[in-house]
Amino acid sequence: MPSAESTPASVHEAEAEAETVRPTREDEIAARGSELIGGPIGRRALLGTTWWTPVRVVVLVAIGMFALGLIQKAPCYDSGWFFGASTQYTHACYSDIPHLYQGRGFADGLVPYFDKLPGDMDYLEYPVLTGVFMEVAAWLTPGSGTLQHQEQWYWMVNAGMLMACAAVIAVCVSRTHARRPWDGLLVALAPAFVLTATINWDLLAVALTAAAMLMWARGRSLAFGVLLGLATAAKLYPVFLLGPLFLLCWRAGKWRDFGKAVGGAVVAWLVVNLPVMLFAFDGWSKFYRFSQERGVDFGSFWLIWAQNSTTPPTTDFVNTAATVLVLLCFVGIGVLALTAPRRPRFAQLAFLVVAAFILTNKVYSPQYVLWLVPLAVLARPKWRDFLVWQVCEVAYYLGIWMYLAYTTSGDAHKGLPTHGYHWAIAVHLLGTLYLCAVVVRDILMPERDVVRLAGDDDPSGGVLDGAEDVFVLGGAARPPRHAAPLGGSTVDWGKEQPGDGSSL
Fold this sequence. Notes:
Elements: H1 9-19, H2 23-26, H3 28-33, H4 54-72, H5 74-80, H6 87-90, H7 96-103, H8 128-139, H9 147-176, H10 184-189, H11 191-196, H12 202-217, H13 221-234, H14 242-252, H15 255-279, H16 281-284, H17 286-293, H18 301-307, H19 315-339, H20 346-360, H21 369-379, H22 383-408, H23 418-444, H24 450-453, E1 482-483, E2 491-492
Antiparallel strand pairs: 1-2
Helix pairs in contact: 4-9, 7-9, 8-13, 9-12, 12-13, 12-21, 13-15, 14-15, 14-19, 14-20, 18-23, 19-20, 20-21, 20-23, 22-23
């Protein structure tokens, strides 16, 4: 029998490809959708032995879909951002990026956080790393021509930088679950991802978070922490992932890795933020003050309450109530994590905590869906459930622009009236709750988890993958020593298995 060293590389590649989970075999919706490109992958297909690897295919699809999203913004690029407030809404092509080029001082060469802005917005209201991203794009924007010409260039420069972020997200999601690279197609083809990618700068934080998830899956705890700290320096939500990680490391007894992750996150966040904190504290703190002071805004159930009440809730009340609600959700997720029959997968809990924050927050901008897309794919890579949620998000995307068209069209009232917009918000909320429900069901009934059906434990879990529990709450939380994956074979989850995430 030939040794491993003498075995041709193509044989190893074919063996690795044989272990790859193919959605067209296990997912009915994916199989039906594949008919558009020739049908499901054949049994003898050897994609891993050609240039067309799954990751490369996913990245190219992601770039192609991103380009379609740019085309969708074409009506606004020509005139909608500059002439007539309602045009950018009726064509559903609004973006903050060109408006803030002048509105936040980039056209005048002002330095974010250090220079005051004219008007009510005294400083830039974005976290530091996002401000750096915006400033770099301003440096790359030609300063000649009319202001409209400069704003068009600024949007295009940002679009190019955000496209790079989208490619990073596609690569990271495809590689996080080693045997499920094709799940990255869910990210690449997600319609809400395409429509909202260039509304704002959220893709920077999403890309850093996706890279952090990949590092944790590879067992690189410190790199995970550094990337998560950078992501938190770009947007607040990534810091919530430390909560699920704490619970899972507690249950598995992996305190050293958790400590490295937290240490890396704190140091990375301080490296970015401390210089601005020391020399421009008022500008640095604007993001946090603005988040606290802003009232009830678009997309939240709080807005439905406020617009249907003769005594709408005050900002202070909503701040307190939203905080209490999200903390209650976090406590519930914590109980779920420590009492589930088997330790939940990291991606499952990560999705739930970010979704809880979105559902209880006092504002839901349409681009916030980008936060959830990679986490949703890793938590529940089931095409039917993912597409149900995406349909709801697209409905909300159209709803908010039609509502703004209605409010800006004067007596013409072209668009969606207030009660119609409330239904769009309800659709968004119900779609997100539905996806949360199926993820919770997978946690309580791990035999229905499509990732574990293939024989894996927690391929995004890094050191948690296959680890035994050292702490649980309640007798029901003692998982069986052996579990039967799809196909009837028996897997010992206390040992490293070939082809699962622990072999990365």
